[in-house]
Write a structure and sequence with these properties.
The chain is an alpha+beta fold. It is 56% helix and 15% strand. Among the domains are: 54-251, no CATH class; 475-552, no CATH class; 554-603 and 788-926, no CATH class; 621-778, no CATH class. Strands 15, 16, 17, 18, 19, 20, 21, 22, 23 and 24 form a 10-stranded mixed β-sheet that branches. Strands 4, 5, 6, 7, 8, 9, 10 and 11 form an 8-stranded mixed β-sheet that branches. Strands 3-13-1-14 form a 4-stranded antiparallel β-sheet. Helix 2 (13-51) crosses helix 9, helix 13 (463-501) packs across helix 14 (506-519) and helix 16 crosses helix 25. It is elongated. Belongs to the ABC-4 integral membrane protein family.
Length: 926
């Protein structure tokens, strides 16, 4: 039976390859995800280890509590006098101090140099201690006073060389500095899109507003002393607000935020790989079911010859095992290409990631192979079990089919119960309070899985009515797309073909060739290549002769519609693969619309001013000097900035914000308690809290809130107001204090946003005046309220585009599922097609019939998928206050059009294969 199974696979190479595509693509995304994230992790590890090469210990500032990784909290700097004390320790061989911060390089066009939203790193360098220097000098010299070294990538991309002058913006207005040298970051081949700027220590301290301060001291133990001894000695002289760690521990601490992000990133991408495999499992199960139905007489003959049910089962499972192994191996190595593509994809959407070469680990191989093989085997179990039920007597029956199983009549009820159970789990995960995060995610994942399986099984009952409803839609859709495509594809193709082999004079053929080449030059290359292979001469042009009759009622179209209803289970299973992909795409689109609309409403409700000042990338914080420069513009009546940071209250770390006395003029709150006046009267001990935080801790007007800041100081605050944040969110933290109180206890304060009102409102003159005031701050820009809303929502749309690209893989898998089903049905209906051809059905009509069946199947999957996606989005919107339920009508219409296009493309090859059947040979086909 093993030899029989392997010969069967080799005898059906095409069917096996089509069946395997779903697994190949799913495994490729899983493999590519691991390769991508392992490569990024390796690159970051190299960066962090390079930072502490030849280092035994590091001294840093110590915040009063652990900071989250959102970038708003910063450890305080410490007095540089500590460096001299460290150097006197007998256990310390060498020590050097440094400061760092954000340093924006300014291009020759006066604009900030940014590569894909990556950070702009600035730091001090000291060539006197090369063992601590992570930079490698490529050209020029190390910087002197008011000089800078920049990375080679920035220099090459923006046309800078040693000796040129470049703008540098840090905490104050941009300054012009001479480029003394070009550097690379050690041995790391790529640090993503980050820009590097290195300065001598005094210059860096001035730029980052840290006079007499250090952020870090790197230490190398003296010969004869161990790192532990050096650390112990340093600990004895550490002042409050500082800490010392070993180099390895400090590197791990620096990498914590990156590690957390990469773990989430890996899980995020693996989810889409799982989706592709899930869709692929439907393709595999459907393909094997059709193949087994076609091999009924073959299995019956085996049973007649003495094969047991176990042997038949083993034969089918072995075929699936071999298919799974081969598919997983192909997908595993295809993942290398996927990883490279993902690097470019994220770079396109503004997330330039470091890359030190692709990393292909053993874990990737094991996981990818196991997942691919297990998914294939699980998908094959039901078809394999059906194969064992073929009775021996079927070997002598013409057109024998498998009788339904004894539980077949319970299938609709079981499918409905599965879907209901899935909905129940989703509801539990969304609406039951007190569950852990892992429990909620597991409940949602299993619930959605059951919903998909239940709907897919129940969809057979919906096929006939949906096919009937989709029939006219399919005709109209094909007609409209034909009208759109004809001038750009079919007409040029017909003209080019006429130019090669058409009737008429040489002049008319030449005119047709030239006109076709002008209308579509890409087709010219295709036609020439086919002509060189002598294949075009055997083709019969469908256009433009076929164009007038495309929308005509005909027997071929009617047969195509009837074919989709002939086997509802098969049609439903084929449509289910597309249903899953479009359901998830619809869910993402609906949630995206539900997030953007409340956000824009929130901006309108909170932002009562005329302009906002933001960074060029729309999200980076800006130093307070930017708002101070704008405040000097004539006509600015009021300006208020929102500072961002972290604090600790009631034993938890929370986001905090700060506003100044002018806030009531440009910001509007929905007050639960208090009034607008409270915003401008916070003083040294006033606080505004959001309603949810107040309810959680039982706060009301006059309540005391002890807030600990990062420097360890505790502010005894009084609640002056409680506001209700809008559904779309707000830029304010749980607690908002005055700017003066914030700046006194938070090092290096930065503004998240600045809002202002101008006399005369939004006018070209006011916009020009604000832009002129920001000339010395190229990283900042003024935006009107509408521009601000659009810029902020563009970030959400960018994320949605990434999700669409990732979900497109599941749609591609479903496309191959439709292709596979149509090809297998062409095999199954070979004699039928031969009969139709024998009684007068033309090749063109055969193609139209297959195409119509494919489009109807795709539309059924689209309808069910879109409705299901809207239902899931409605549940999520009912649970999440930040999301409203908004139907993205334009996008849903686009998804339906995509489904039709998928159906048309899926039918191209099967239709051509069916049209090429020889009627006489087809009538004799077994």
């Amino acid at each position: 039976m093993i030899r029989f199974a392997l010969r069967g696979l080799l005898g059906r190479k095409l069917r096996t390859a089509l069946t395997a595509i779903g697994v190949v693509l799913g495994v490729a995304l899983v493999s590519g995800t691991y390769v991508l994230t392992d490569s990024i992790t390796s690159a970051f590890d190299s960066i962090f280890s390079e930072n502490y090469k030849n280092t035994d210990a590091a001294i840093t500032g110590k915040p009063a509590f652990d900071l989250s990784d959102d970038g708003t909290g910063r450890a305080p700097a410490f007095n540089e006098s500590l460096l001299a004390s460290v150097r006197t320790l007998p256990e310390v061989g060498a020590a050097d101090g440094a400061v760092s911060g954000e340093a924006q390089l300014i291009g020759k066009d006066g604009k900030a140099i940014v590569f894909g939203g990556a950070p702009n790193l600035g730091f001090s360098v000291n060539p006197k201690f090369p063992q601590f220097n992570s930079l490698a000098l490529v050209d020029g010299a190390w910087p002197a006073a008011d000089e800078v070294v920049i990375d080679t990538k920035s220099a090459k991309e923006k046309g800078f060389a040693v000796g040129d002058t470049i703008g540098v913006q840090a905490r104050d207005a941009a300054q012009r500095m001479r480029i003394s040298g070009l550097v690379d970051f050690g041995a790391v081949s790529s640090i993503g899109g980050a820009t590097l700027a290195g300065f001598e220590l005094p210059t860096a301290q001035r730029l980052f507003d840290k006079p007499g301060k250090l952020d870090q001291i790197l230490i190398a133990a003296k010969s004869g002393s161990s790192p532990e001894q050096a650390i112990a000695a340093v600990q004895k002289i550490l002042p409050p607000g500082t800490q010392v760690r070993s180099a390895d521990d400090q590197a791990s601490k620096d990498a914590e935020g990156t590690t957390g992000f990469l773990n989430f990133f890996r899980t995020f991408l693996l989810v889409f790989g799982g989706i592709a495999l899930f869709v692929g499992s439907f393709v595999i199960a459907n393909s094997l079911s059709i193949t087994i139905a076609q091999r009924t007489r073959e299995f019956a003959t085996l049973r007649t010859l003495g094969a047991s049910r176990r042997q038949v089962l083993g034969s089918v499972v072995l075929e699936a095992l071999v298919t799974g192994v081969v598919s997983a191996i192909v997908g595993l190595f295809l993942g290398l290409g996927i990883a490279t593509g993902l690097f470019k994809l994220f770079d396109t959407f503004g997330l330039t990631l470091p890359n030190n070469g692709l990393v292909f680990r053993t874990r990737t191989v094991v996981v990818a192979l196991l997942v691919g093989v297990l998914v294939t085997l699980l998908a094959s179990l039901r078809p394999a079990w059906r194969a064992t039920r073929v009775p021996p007597i079927a070997a002598v029956r013409e057109g024998a089919t498998l009788a339904p199983g004894r539980f077949h009549r319970f299938r609709p009820l079981g499918a409905a119960l599965l879907a209901i159970a899935g909905v129940a789990l989703v509801v539990v995960g969304l609406f039951v309070n007190g569950l852990s995060t892992s429990t909620v995610l597991a409940s949602l994942a299993v619930g959605v899985l059951l919903i998909f399986v239940g709907i897919a099984l129940f969809a057979a009952r919906l096929v006939r009515p949906l096919a009937a409803a989709s029939d006219p839609v399919a005709r109209w859709s094909v007609f409209v797309l034909t009208v759109l495509v004809w001038p750009f594809f079919s007409l040029p193709y017909w003209l080019l073909r006429r130019g090669f082999w058409g009737p008429g004079s040489a002049g008319s053929r030449a005119a047709g060739f030239v006109l076709g080449a002008v209308l579509n030059p890409v087709l010219l290359v295709i036609v020439v290549l086919m002509a060189l292979r002598h294949r075009v001469s055997s083709w019969q042009p469908e256009w433009p002769a076929d164009f007038p009759s495309v929308f005509a009622e005909g027997s071929a179209v009617q047969i195509g519609g009837q074919n989709s209803k002939r086997d509802p289970s098969r049609t439903a299973s084929t449509a289910a693969a597309l249903m899953i992909g479009l359901a998830l795409v619809t869910l993402v689109a609906t949630l995206g619309a539900g997030i953007i609309r409340p956000f824009e409403d929130a901006v309108d409700r909170i932002f009562s001013g005329d302009y906002a000042i933001t960074a060029q990338n729309n999200f980076s914080p800006l130093p307070p000097t930017v708002a101070a420069a704008v405040a000097t513009v004539p006509g600015v009546s009021s300006i208020s900035s929102v500072r961002g940071g972290q604090g600790r209250a009631f034993d938890e770390t929370i986001p905090i914000t700060a506003v100044d006395a002018q806030a009531p003029a440009v910001l509007a709150f929905d007050w639960k308690s208090g009034s607008q006046a409270a915003l401008g009267e916070l003083g040294a001990d006033g606080a505004i809290v959001d309603a949810d935080y107040a309810d959680k801790h039982g706060l009301q007007l006059g309540s005391s809130v002890p807030l600990q800041t990062v420097v360890g100081k505790t502010l005894d605050l009084k609640v002056r107001g409680i506001f209700k944040p809008p559904a779309g969110g707000s830029p304010f933290g749980n607690i908002t204090i005055s700017t003066s109180a914030f700046d006194a206890t938070n090092p290096q304060p930065q503004n998240i946003y600045s809002f202002l009102s101008v006399q005369g409102g939004v006018t070209p003159a006011n916009t020009a005046a604000l832009s002129a005031a920001l000339t010395d701050f190229p990283n900042a820009k003024p935006q009107t309220r509408e521009e601000f809303k659009k810029a902020q929502s563009d970030g959400i749309k960018g994320l949605l585009n990434v999700l669409y690209v990732l979900l497109a893989l599941s749609v591609i898998v479903s496309l191959f599922g439709i292709v596979n089903t149509l090809v297998l049905t062409v095999f199954e209906r070979t004699r039928e097609l031969g009969m139709l051809r024998a009684i007068g059905l033309t090749r063109r009509q055969v193609k139209r019939m297959i195409r119509h069946e494919s489009v109807i199947t795709a539309l059924i999957g689209a309808v069910i998928g879109i409705v299901l996606g809207l239902g899931l989005a409605l549940l999520l919107a009912a649970r999440l206050d930040e999301v409203s339920f908004a139907v993205p009508t334009t996008q849903l219409i686009l998804f339906a059009v995509v489904a039709v296009v998928v159906g048309i493309f899926a039918a191209i090859w099967p239709a051509r294969r069916a049209a090429r059947l020889n009627p006489l040979e087809a009538l004799q086909y077994e």
